[in-house]
Amino acid sequence: MIVVVWPQVSSGGTELFIKKMLDGAPLCKDLLEVPTISDLPEMVAPNREAISIANGASDTRVRALESPRIVRPLTLVSNGKPSAKAQKLLDFLAGEGKALFKK
Question: Which residue in 65, 73, 76 sits closest to 16, CA to CA?
């Protein structure tokens, strides 16, 4: 039996997964829910039958499986005019930093 581990709190990542991978279909009814996406590896690691989405694959307790690539736009927000440091970052991302992003 496969155990689907899913965060209780919805996020842009979970919504994007449902939209792109499940074509908007609802998740299965029998989920093992965890409080947040950060809690997923803790519940997946001890159970070989568990599977979940991940926010990066840096946790060595779990193994990242090959799956189709899902991408979304990056949105940055500011409370008023960006500070000088924030503006420097924005200028970098709009210029030479573009090369760091995969299309």
Answer: 73
